[in-house]
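[job 4471] stage=fold_predict status=RUNNING
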Amino acid sequence: MQIQFNTDRNIEGDEAKAQFVEAVVHGALDRFSEQITRVEIHVRDENSNKKGGSDDIRCLMEARLGGLQPVAVSHNAATFEDAVEAAAGKMQRSLASMLGRLNQR
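[job 4471] inference complete, writing structure tokens
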């Protein structure tokens, strides 16, 4: 499973954040690693650092599955960490539901 991490110009995408994202994604999605070819994570500040505000950090997570359509989820939160963790949880539930339905057929 390949992980691609991107940020906008308002969020610094340093090595510590990249390692955090990889750890969260692996923790949430490792059980699906045989079906997932790539996970793309895009984190951005919705209203830039000038305006502030709550829940303005958005994490969009897209999982690409072999032979299936990509699955995308997003979550807005007050912090980078909260946005990534919540999006990973949503992705985990979404993939479990989708792959569970496919396995029942």
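[job 4471] summary: Residues 80-104 form the longest helix (25 residues).
[job 4471] exit 0
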